[in-house]
Amino acid sequence: MKLEKLYARYESIVPDFASFLQYLRKPLVPSLRINTLKAPRKKIVALLADVNLRQLPFSDDAFRVEGKYALGKHLTHNLGLIYVQEAASMLPVVVLDPQPGEVVMDLCAAPGSKTTQIGQIMHNRGLLVANEISRKRIRGLVHNIKRCGLINEVVISVSGQKAHRLFSDYFDRILIDAPCSAEGTVRKSKAVLYHWGVKNIKRMSRIQIGLVVSGFRALRPGGTMVYSTCTIAPEENEMVVSYLLEKFPEAELLPIKVENFRVRKGITQWEGTTFDRRVENCARILPQDNDTAPFFIAKLTKRGVYRPRMDYLGKIEMDEALLSNCAKQFGISAERLRSFAIFRHRNDNFISTPEVFSFREVNAVRKGLEFGRVYDHELKPDNDFVQIFGHNATKSVIEMQRWQVGKFLKGEIVKNDVSGIEKGFVIVNFKGLPIGVGKYNGKEIRSAIKRERRTL
Question: Can you list the domains of the chain with their CATH numbers?
């Protein structure tokens, strides 16, 4: 199907339709987020000195990339210091505005772009429940969670339409970035032109209604829920929100304003159907307004009396042997880690927030971040753990040069005769940033980067 034919149905709701089509034909301008969980903003920007960046107006950590770069092969990407993400796709989390220490759910979490963005804004504190019904997609979600260093997350896999049965009036904030007909992805890929159809739009609308109803029931009174899609179809946008407003009198739709970023009002009529007038508070993001992908965002709250949730923290597990080994080998103070839970899950040791450790509502796919394993009384810390907590290391730390880092991240052996460093596992730094773990024998360092995380 030709682009003009697919989008012709929206001519009546897009006044500057010619400009709309013109931008849909243009390729997307790449954009990225820097991940301040792993390093200070200035250090990450310094490592991106070879990339032409222009800051986006709605976030200190979001940048547009001017020019062509293989960002997926950049050092900062491999280390989880950046996340390549389309600019408009970052806005639902900006609107959600999660806070450190809150209890938050990402109802449709894979592949993890918004989950990791939420975790970063929460400063790795509180509880972030990342739900993904597709077991195939969970692998990519977990990969991105690990790469970005989240320790406040629980990954679960339940039906989004039934989540409220487990979590009635539970969450402070909920994001529903719903599966949709994906019309807005045409600037990234022309695939939508080959599988688009009104029947699919109507099918997705039914799924989305089930998700927003379940999500709203799981939201505590006074909480915030954001519903978003990357489609233009009113059947998947205003119609879904209007249904929710009619079904739940306690639902309130909040206005959306993004600093220095143009958003348009939601529409109240479509093909003979009139929606609740409050849907004008929704935000339509069109490609010609900010040179982004199209997006739709609705922000809701639930009126009612907030009854504080009886959180059970109980006794937080703390593996003293791991703490002792970490302090002895690397000088990472045990006190630095005592505000977290350190526990064993299956065959690995994990570190998480107390809220994550105490989560019992449903069996988790994973909780927190791998800490490391002990071999013959010697701790081999996980690379992702080191990238988060290795800044505090005072022993067994080796600084590498750029050419050495390239070999190290490929999993190769790097010759490096460093005086004053004992044999055994060491933390490898580059420009003062911990990047991974190696085994030092007095003359060379054998990389411990896992095979799936090595660069080519």
Answer: 3-20+87-302 (3.40.50.150), 29-85 (3.30.70.1170), 396-456 (3.10.450.720)
